[in-house]
């Protein structure tokens, strides 16, 4: 093997070492786990959650999406898409939940309206006491 070929192989090997871990990290980070089953308490007087006082308001926090819907009141679901783990959001125009990664859509009960996701989003029980919401994620 001449010097030039040996040098080319070394450079190619180095590039592999740098590229592969970052590619693996990217794949791993897109798959979130919804392992937090502790109750979530939301104070609607907190500025962070103030939008939930209005119909159409929504907040994503602690792997949970909370939406003030016209038909169902305030609902809460896992915000982790069941397809590949991206964070879903409220789609005001379509009045459903949309995953920005591959465009899966979910209804407020968590059911899949459009794939590629095939499993529903877990829906959580919401209890309201004045301006305090308790979301049971167990
Ligand atoms: S990660 Fe949500 S549709 Fe693919």
TrEMBL record:
Domain Rieske: from-to ranges: 44-135
InterPro entries to which the protein is assigned, alphabetical: Rieske_2Fe-2S, Rieske_2Fe-2S_sf, Rieske_Fe-S_prot, Rieske_Fe-S_prot_C
Named cofactor requirement(s): [2Fe-2S] cluster
Keywords carried by this UniProt record: 2Fe-2S, Disulfide bond, Iron, Iron-sulfur, Metal-binding, Signal
Signal peptide location: 1-25
CDD domains: Rieske (cd03467)
Alphabetized PANTHER family for the sequence: CYTOCHROME B-C1 COMPLEX SUBUNIT RIESKE, MITOCHONDRIAL (PTHR10134)
Descriptive protein name: Cytochrome b6
Naturally occurring in which organism (per UniProt): Prolixibacter denitrificans
